[in-house]
Amino acid sequence: MENIALIESFSEFKDDKLIDRVTLMAILEDVFRNALKKKYGEDDNFDIIVNPDKGDLEIWRNRIVVADGEVEDSNREISLSQARKIEPDFEVGEDVSEEVKLVDLGRRAILALRQNLISKIHEHDNTNIYKQFKDLEGEIYTAEVHHIRHRAIILLDDEGNEIVLPKDRQIPSDFFRKGENVRGIIESVELKGNKPTIIMSRTAPGFLEKLFEQEIPEVFDGLITIKKVVRVPGEKAKVAVDSYDDRIDPVGACVGMKGSRIHSIVRELGNENIDVINFTNNEQLFITRALSPAKITSIKMDEEAKTAEVMLKPEEVSKAIGRGGHNIRLAGQLTGYEIDVYREGVEEDVELKEFTDEIEDWVIAEFSKIGLDTAKAVLEQDVDDLVRRTDLEEETIKDVMAVLRSEFEE
């Protein structure tokens, strides 16, 4: 019973770790073999018998009986007089099996055994957690806010697993309190020093796609296919959907009556504006749909260069570009085309890149970010609005406008 009592003392924490007894006993055997190697130099002449049902473990050392005074390897050989203390009828050349009690290993060895066991069980747990969450990559997961840090929120799931939601994977309007449940997708799982690091994201396009699967039955059942998702998290998203069943209107099914079906998704994403678009292989038509709500007059496409020049009425241009240039940028990402917007009826205009000798490249890039690529496109804007939409100072914007105006006054 000596060994059983010691094993039970080693494994008293197993219930907290949710480790099954069979696995625990296998880890125990490995730990004890390491201890035997340290004490005796090797372990291959030892038999370790594990009985997981009883929680028992026996260690037997096997040695050969040699004549007194001829023992060369005390681990593998035993003198005849010592062997006969175990059993009086042993003879030279016979095998002797002697049980090793754990207490024989010494107090220090037993303490080391315990530490080694704890380490092995943690390693086992971490491997299992890594495998579990690796299989969940790209799936929606819910966990509770445990700790709020400056650069990340630390979440715990029902099993006490730690999940990290970094600041840059949070929607800008996200605000969570301790104890609150948070949904996101498991973006990545990595082993760092035997400890799994689980990263959650609420900004990945995949999160929006999985929300569609959860909230819209036709998407979950495969009747509607999500072809592509592009997002500016918390601001705007475009989702291209398709159906192989002509009887199903994929856009109508996803949005629902008065937006009833998509409402919960919008709310989850901090009121992100979601455009659901019918996918088509007709690239010209797809670009037209992607620039919604703007109405396009005509499109000139270069399929090799993947560029599209879109002509619109002046009042439609701001719709095509969208607030902060989000609409035109997302339309380009969705279709794979670089889209340039031109105003119908405006014959004379000059691209901003023609002014690089007077306007710095980074300033031109700031205007391009919000979809303003020509001189007149900039001149039609309000200065205060441009200050709000770009990272440019008011004085810089006024200087640029003065340069652009002079071009048309000459």
TrEMBL record:
Gene3D superfamilies in alphabetical order: 3.30.300.20, Nucleic acid-binding proteins, NusA, N-terminal domain
Pfam family name, one: KH_NusA_2nd
UniProt superkingdom: Bacteria
Gene Ontology biological process terms from the UniProt entry: DNA-templated transcription termination; transcription antitermination
HAMAP family assigned: NusA_B
Function of the protein: Participates in both transcription termination and antitermination.
Protein name: Transcription termination/antitermination protein NusA
Annotated source species: Christiangramia aestuarii
Taxonomic lineage of the native organism: Bacteria, Pseudomonadati, Bacteroidota, Flavobacteriia, Flavobacteriales
Encoding gene (name): nusA
